[in-house]
Amino acid sequence: MELLEVLKRLSSLDGPSGYEQEVIKYIKEEAEKIPNVKSEIDHLGNLIVRKEGPGKKIALFAHSDEIGFVLTKKEYGNYWRFSHFGGVDPKAVISQRLRIHTRDGSISTGVVGMLEPHLQTEEMKGKVPSFDELFIDIVEGGDKVSIGDLAVFSSEPFSLSDKYFTGKALDNRASCATLLYALALLNNFVPRSDAYFVFNIREEDGSPGAKAVAYKLKPDLAIILDVTHGDVQIPSSPKIETGKGPVLDIGPVISYEHFERLKKLAEKISVSYQVEPTGGVSYTDTDAIQITRGGILTLLISLPIRYMHTPYEVTNIRDIEETARLLSSFIAQGGE
Amino acid sequence: MNNLYLKELTELNGVSGYERRVREFIKEKIKDRVSGMEEDILGNLIAWKEGKNSKKLMLCAHMDEVGFMVSNIEEDGKLSIIPIGGIDPRTIIGKKVLIGEKEIPGVIGYKAIHLQRGEELTPPSFENIKIDIGVNKKTDAENKVKIGDFVAFATKSTVNGDWASGKALDDRGGCSILIDLIEDNIGLFYTTYFVFSTQEELGLRGAGVAAEKISPDFAVVVETTTSGDNPEFPEARRSTELGRGPAISPAHSGYVIDEKLFYWMLDNAKENNILYQIKRRTVGGTDARRIATTLAGIPSAVISIPSRYIHSPMSVLNLKDYENTLRLIATSLTKEVKDERTY
Q1: Using CA atoms, how far apart are residues B138 and B115, in angstroms rounded to an integer?
Q2: How many structural domains does chain A have?
Q3: The pLDDT of residue B1
Q4: What is the mean pLDDT of residues B201-225?
């Protein structure tokens, strides 16, 4: 599997929450290139890829959706108001080109404009416009858009260096790529678990996708893959860095016992890892999965990325490779 | 066909003081279509064509765009930058940039929204904005870039239907019009100098040097200007509106436009039924201010393509306005500037 190629495709595809099917379809194609797997898409649109084995049922989850925008009101001409879902910094939206998916399947393009500095008053300069004050200027296909059309960032992914890759939606397509890579690596082992690789929908709008799959599968262990903030010092927390390997989360939403097993295995196979304390809930699909159908044991593994929820998130390629190596080994050994 | 080069022109990198790429591109396009061409010490490109009358008219569009320069390479491999020209720091987060002669790609990242505590609506300062080129060490960064390298936005342009969007429309729009005027083989009244100037965004620094050399009888600056034409900005404070034709300036910061030239354009617009508008604000100066005070004084005028969101990585102009701007200048160039108004 060409990891960079897969990552590039995954970042290029558009899949705002609830509209992930292009992404799901592509992942299914890639998964089916891997021998000895069975895949299905459930009634909600979640993709479940099974790698059958004799042991415990382990489900791995990566959400396939991305943050997005929705057209809310036409002003005049090509001007529209818009809103967002998933946490978005208005500063990261100004002067961006957004790709709008219209009702007839065509793509329109709008730019989020900012008044020229020459005309700004001192008062205006002192504040970032909120989403209520931002507007989108639809310069291509302005006659095709309707209220409710969804939009995403249009940034094209690229390799920033031989170590780092950048693009939109690496939250959480970097994890999707990691799961695909782990699935490919799993063929090097005789697995001792019954593994389900789940590419679920709708994390950014509150986890209805992951919860449904967790309910249906009721796995013995669920491992959730998501992203976390890398290379930023968060007060009272260890500094998580890119390039230093997978981040193992610890806290009330994590099975302490499985966390210890995973740590031991990482040490045994020389995967360097980092530990991130998750106070309270994790704000990932883990929180919903843990309390599904009588309760499910959960592990959360995060890939550190920079500039989360901006058009150019940055991920470290080696972190993806090492996370996949750890995961495939863990599953092959039946979660031991 | 007109505006054939607009997309390519806007995608070239030519931050003030680093206009070489734009100059080389324009040179290549016009070299066989002008009577003569030269380049001066400041990097201005000056081309000319003979007219019926030996008096000289200078047309001027600036090649440079706003951008940044690498000011420091930090220990963690990130690049600090200083702005070149007037850039709003609220418009630069989450953008791809190209750095230096090798055009090394980088991104302008910012602290994730999840980690901001009440700073969401606070404008960032340039000191807190760093460029990420995918390295973690100063020495690794030094292998790719150096202090003094230019930093330009990497925005791709779209030119479709009625609209163009991209970076540097200010003033590649004007450059594109000058190229079209050269290619269109107009029956010029005056011997006309086509000046592609440098360092406009740093205080109109190139154009005066070119004017001094040419010593024209008149000058017309072709710009891409502001509008404020958006739902948030009060209509009464707009400077222009898109779709309403070229903006003819009566006066702007530091210079009241020469009356004869102002009416020369206005009358030609009226006589030929070309849609035009009078620019409604005086904020922002152009090369006209510098040219007007060069030598013993050169009567100057300004005509602009109205534009939105200029000086940001994503500006917009209307291609009908572009066409009308081109038509009005082309028509005017065939006519004499009258000493006395005939109205």
Answers
A1: 26
A2: 2
A3: 58
A4: 97
Q: Strand, helix or coil at B68?
A: strand
Q: Answer left, alpha or beta for residue B15, where phi above 0 means left and psi between -120 and 50 means alpha.
A: beta
- B243-252 per-position pLDDT tens digit: 999 999 999 9
CATH of the domain at A132: 2.40.30.40
Determine whether the interchain pair B283/A92 forms a contact, defined as Cβ–Cβ distance below 8 Å.
no
Distance to chain B for A239, nearest Cα, Å: 13
The shortest C-alpha distance from A96 to chain B (Å) reads 7
> Residue B16 domain-assigned?
yes
Q: How many CB pairs under 8 A join A and B?
A: 191
For residue B24, count other CB atoms closer than 10 A to its CB. 14
CA-CA distance, A122 to A114, in Å (whole number)? 15
pLDDT over 70 (residue B341): no
Residue A160 lies in a domain: no
pLDDT in tens, A129-142: 999 999 999 999 99
* Dihedral sign computed on CA atoms, order A151, A214, A252, A179: negative
Closest CA to A173 of A2, A5, A7: A7
Q: Any idea which of A202-216, B39-53, B311-325 has the lowest mean pLDDT?
A: A202-216
Please indicate whether, in this complex, the C-beta atoms of A95 and B314 are within 8 angstroms of each other: yes
**Nearest C-alpha neighbor of B124 from the set B148, B99, B93, B154:** B93
- When CB atoms are compared, the residue of A90, A158, A243 closest to B120 is A90
ipTM reported for the complex surpasses 0.90: yes
Q: Mark whether B143 and B291 lie in a shared domain.
A: no
Average pLDDT, chain B: 96
For the entire predicted model, the pTM comes to 0.94
Tokens representing A223 are 């491992």
Does B118 or B249 have the greater pLDDT score?
B249
Contact B114 A127 (CB under 8 A): no
In a domain, A159, yes or no: no
Residue range of the domain that includes A74: 68-153
Report how far Cα B208 is from the mean position of its chain's Cα atoms. 16
Q: Which of B200, B201, B241, B323 is catalytic?
A: B200
Residue B299's domain spans which residues? 6-65+167-333
Residue B159 has pLDDT above 70, yes or no: yes
CB contact under 8 A, A114 and B96: no
Strand partners, B57: B192, B218
Same domain, yes or no, for A217 and A227?
yes
Q: Do B86 and A118 count as a contact with CB atoms less than 8 A apart?
A: yes
Which amino acid is it at B305?
A: I
Which residues in chain B touch residue A203, judged by CB atoms under 8 angstroms apart? Answer: none
- The set of residues, in sequence order, having a beta carbon less than 8 Å from that of A5 and lying 6+ positions away, is none
The answer on A268 and A178 residing in a single domain is yes
Smallest CA–CA distance, residue B132 to chain A, in Å, is 8
d(CA B81, CA B67): 10
Q: What is the mean pLDDT of residues B136-140?
A: 97
Nearest CB to B316; choose among A137, A242, A243: A137
| Side chain identity, residue A118 | H
